[in-house]
Amino acid sequence: MAQLSDDCFAFGGPMMSVDEAVGIITARVTPVADIETVSLVDADGRVLACDVAAPLPLPPFTNSAVDGYAVRAGDLPQDGPRAFPVAGRVPAGVAAQSVAPGQAMRIFTGAPMPQGADTVFMQEDVHIDGAGRVVLPTGLKPGANVRPAGEDVPQGRVALKAGERMKPQHVALAAAFGLTELAVVRRIRVAIFSTGDELASPGTVRAAAQLFDSNRYMLIAMLRRLGAAVSDLGILRDERAPLASALKDAAATHDLILTTGGVSTGEEDHVKAGVESVGSLVLWRMAIKPGRPVAMGIVDGTPFIGLPGNPVASFVTFVHVVRPTLLALSGANQAPLVPMPVRAAFTYKKKAGRREYVRASLRTGADGSLEAVKFPREGAGLLSSLIDSDGLVELGEDIIKVEPGMRVGFLDYENLI
């Protein structure tokens, strides 16, 4: 179980910035220590538990980078084209032969270099004369078109680092080493539930005054994309005691508790009070839009995050609060989300001291530059805005106005989880 001490939190005062709020938990959370072994085909998305040093060099032998003819560097033509007898043929996967001085060897991409040869002429740069000899031109440098053993990764070098969140390219590198299994951090166990008498689960009867719960399904999908093992606790009603009991029970068997809804200050918003009755609260207001009502705290040493009930606010705060917390719990190396600079094609005003995320789509301007076009409506309850836009324009705390032509940072949805 990941644990978080309760002696490091402060509550009250002005709204915290996004970076301050996330820093409080991520800097103090203790990553889970449990390690398991998974097959290579199941390693995508998992967090590597141990460094992987190259057990062999890549490539493991010196080979040709092209289809062509291998020769010795000492035989390279100097004063004009020169004809060489072809001593043999080396396809890929066949043991190399040797090349005597004054000879050339037909060779194919990936085939091991013949002993004595160290340079390859591309087949399109040569021709065969009437005697069956290959005619090689001048101008090629020694060592051209050859991939030395270990050129990609030398043997013994740390090629995959602990904390790496495996992607297909990492899996490919492990496969190139001949590995079939990897040691990874066990999946982070996350308990999630929605709150609110106004919600009904899809597949159940919805009363006239109820909405089908969409946030929980969105968040479960996002959690699973980040490699978490999710316990879906369903919908909890707006009653303080059952909420507190559910939080305490979840803390005993999970590494993170995530809720959506019920973290505002209304009389029927009981999550904040429920956390305080069984644990400690870090904050419940953050300087972010959409998403100001975000609760962060601990219950019996387990981190708790309560997200807003509006779906867009829930999505945005998941990306910027839950995602870094989950990665910290898994011990993953975290690279900051770096917005792509684009040109604004909209006008927008905001308050200073608050980070805002504007839903936008990208288009190519008349001059070929990428432009961000703001979604026409701003409601944080508009699920369609997450479908009909490409990502988020990030507006920092010091920005108060956006005008057409201004450079802004854009975060593509595809890169946020």
Summarize the structure.
The protein is α/β, with parallel strands linked by helices. It is 18% helix and 29% strand.
Residue fraction in strands: 25-35%
Report the major sheet.
6 strands, mixed
Structural class assignment:
alpha/beta
User: Taking all residues together, what is the mean pLDDT?
Assistant: 92
Poorly predicted segments:
5-11
What's the Cα radius of gyration? 30 Å
Say how many strands there are: 29
Number of helices: 7
Helix content: 10-25%
**Which word captures the global form?**
elongated
Side by side, the strands of the main sheet go 17-14-18-22-21-19
Q: How far is it from the N-terminal to the C-terminal residue, by CA?
A: 24 Å
Keywords:
29 strands, five-stranded mixed barrel, about 425 residues, alpha/beta, 7 helices
